[in-house]
Amino acid sequence: MATTGTPTNITQGSKTKGGIGESTLRPDGTLKVTGEFAYSSDMWHEDMLWGQTLRSTVAHAEIRSIDISEAVAMPGVYAVLTYDDLPAEMKHYGLEIQDTPVLAHGKVRHHGEPVALVAADHPETARRAAAKIKIDYAELPVITDEASATAPDAILVHEGRDDHHIGHVPHPNIVHRQPIVRGNADEAAERADVIVKGEYTFGMQDQAFLGPESGLAVPSEDGGVELYVATQWLHSDLKQIAPVLGLPEEKVRMTLSGVGGAFGGREDISMQIHACLLALRTGKPVKIVYNRFESFFGHVHRHPAKLYYEHGATKDGKLTHMKCKIVLDGGAYASASPAVVGNASSLSVGPYVIDDVDIEAIALYTNNPPCGAMRGFGAVQACFAYEAQMDKLAAKLGIDPVEFRQLNAMEQGTIMPTGQPVDSPAPVAELLRRVKARPLPPEQQWATAGEQADVRALPGGLSNTTHGEGVVRGVGYAVGIKNVGFSEGFDDYSTAKVRMEVVGGEPVATVHTAMAEVGQGGVTVHAQIARTELGVTQVTIHPADTQVGSAGSTSASRQTYVTGGAVKNTCEHVREAVLEIGRRKFGSYHPAWATAELLLEGGKVVTDGGEVLADLVDVLEDEAVELELEWRHRPTEAFDLRTGQGNGHVQYSFAAHRAVVEVDTELGLVKVVELAVAQDVGKALNPLSVVGQIQGGTTQGLGVAVMEEIIVDPKTAKVRNPSFTDYLIPTILDTPTIPVDVLELADEHAPYGLRGIGEAPTLSSTPAVLAAIRNATGLELNRTPVRPEHLTGTESS
């Protein structure tokens, strides 16, 4: 990893081992690679039952009747629940719009919708009992695209909508609409020497986390329930779970269990409510674990999209205007669609300076699978389209595609289409320069290896389908922009409780937050922050639960920024309280207690000149300092619903990629040889973790470029490939070399100057791969993923 930039000034604790800026190892890393880590699916209770969900076999239908008699009569079955058994007046939930029924009532709106629940003494008994439930469906026509959703006589996916978005959408089957208008795109188009238009299709991607949805609900003596679950946002779950159980929030106690990946797919409720309902009905602990097939129906996916773009440029390469319409398929329920629309629209211009824009983004209600949060959150789809447009413009103008992007690149001070100034470093041109300047890998390495040639280096790999005939190299570039944190006026805060005390003769800090550790490394960073701010080496991370205030969601690249900021803030206050104890005890012995800048380093109180005043053990003795505080980033504001103007985002992040591919043009096979990336991270709190996040995001972008897509039958709205046999994700054999170039240009508004990093590399890796394939084949390729038939011209109509 190469790093460049201005170091962020860290005075407190900068000499403490294992603090900010070091590549400390993850506390859960060894356990995970040795198979000893306890994931949520590993939880066990001595007398627990097993829960099973019965899901709809059709995508849109009236429910005429449900017969549970055979299931109830089976030995070992403790409970069978349907909508009529729900205990509370509230029977729906949702992140923003409460439109999702706990169990289907009256009709089902998508393939795989939960209809009934079973609890039994063995998972196979539960499965067989669920299979005995008889449901009489009267199938209805399916809504699957914009035309069928917005027709004047279209069937309404949700009748009688009363949510706050309904007043500004042109059709009830549109969840949310966000226009952005700045300048005059029509007048600007008249100044363009070149105009290019494009229609792009982005497929439905699955988060494909390896740990399936699972959890354990245990009834409490006070009539409440304890839920141990893998999730991304404990307190959001709590606010949705408690009302449908008919319980106050304090009687629903949630603890995070081991999470096997998330990427947005655990931001919505899956099995949480169902497990609690069964536990409360039976009075016994209930465990639910989805198999892979059910997992494909048990969580939302990335929105598939149609994107319509027009760009203009002058003959010297300056962009004149941009018009676009982005149509996102939200599926049967709203989930996070309104926020995804906001992201897609506000970031649709990309990291470029364009003064005149006319943008519209909408999300549809359809009978396709529900879609919501996934890494990149609306910006991924837009980046795929606007980067294809940049290549088209560059080609039409005869300008190098990187130079064309650099010519139009935004920088600090650029005004976004929403009217918001970019008020921190935006090194777009420099990121592109770095990936372009990197030496290219040798061409056709397999051709010069003779008998030692590794077939895995060829397109098709171990399938041994080619030996180099018709293989052509291509190189492509892309750059993207992603917001960090929650936006549009959302009260985005986090809470941290920090305790400082002496344990076993040495000072120890305990950090307690509700942050969901889903693999991003937050538990590592929190310990590093505590060491830095409190000057101790021993830091304990308390398990995440709802007994502490909310940490918000582990999404939007926000946790290191926001919960890290909360930990830093609370540690600072704890440090001052500890120093005040020291002043009270020892202030009369040394004037520096009153006059010097005091720091905590190496378990001691020291002056900024390095003089040791006291050991922390002597300062604290039997006292403990504990504080729980909230921390917020700068406020944002909602986008205007007519013009899209507003300071909607708190921070932006940027990454650029160069993809090198080798394509067998006869067979349509693609080998990605290298995916080089440059990214500005503000400050690398843990450099090793930073590189891992960038490489992981890059790999997910590669997946949707060449293989990942949930296939939905357009006639029935049924999912065709709900398995890892038919839904393919990159393995180590598909993943190329990913060299990473890290810039550290501090954002003065953020803790330590850091910048959220997790999502940005997912944006530009996809269009870079597509650009490289286009470069190799000369094909336009306006959809993703690219399949062999798209390259060979054998796609069926």
From TrEMBL:
Residues 1-15 have a biased composition (Polar residues). Transmembrane segments: none annotated. It comes from the Bacteria. Residues 1-27 are annotated as: Disordered. Residues 34-141 form the Aldehyde oxidase/xanthine dehydrogenase a/b hammerhead domain. It holds the Pfam family Ald_Xan_dh_C. Coiled coil: none annotated. PANTHER family: XANTHINE DEHYDROGENASE, XANTHINE DEHYDROGENASE SUBUNIT D-RELATED. This is Molybdopterin-dependent oxidoreductase.
